[in-house]
Design brief:
Length: 118
Amino acid sequence: MAEQQMSGVLHCEPCEECVREEWQFVRDGELRWEGYDHCPRYRIYACDRGRGVPPPWARERILAREGAVHLSVGGPDGVPIALLRRVYGLSIAEVVAARAEGYRATPVEARYLTRTAP
């Protein structure tokens, strides 16, 4: 499950100058993510970061920008079910669905899952 840390929590009304960016990466063998908000008009800067899979709002923005990688789950060529459950905290029903349909991962998650798999 994701561990989240927030710092500099300042909010303004979003304007046309506001910038929001999210990144995902692997550091020291762990999935990590960061998000930044910057509003040059009101001189506001905030960051948000954590370990593990990003929160849904950040993950969806990463998927929209970078696209999704379809991963097969289980079997000789798929991501191990135990690894998928550990990384995403999936329920048994979600694992059954992923086993049948595959799993939609970000490019960074896909590289992490396929490199971590035995």
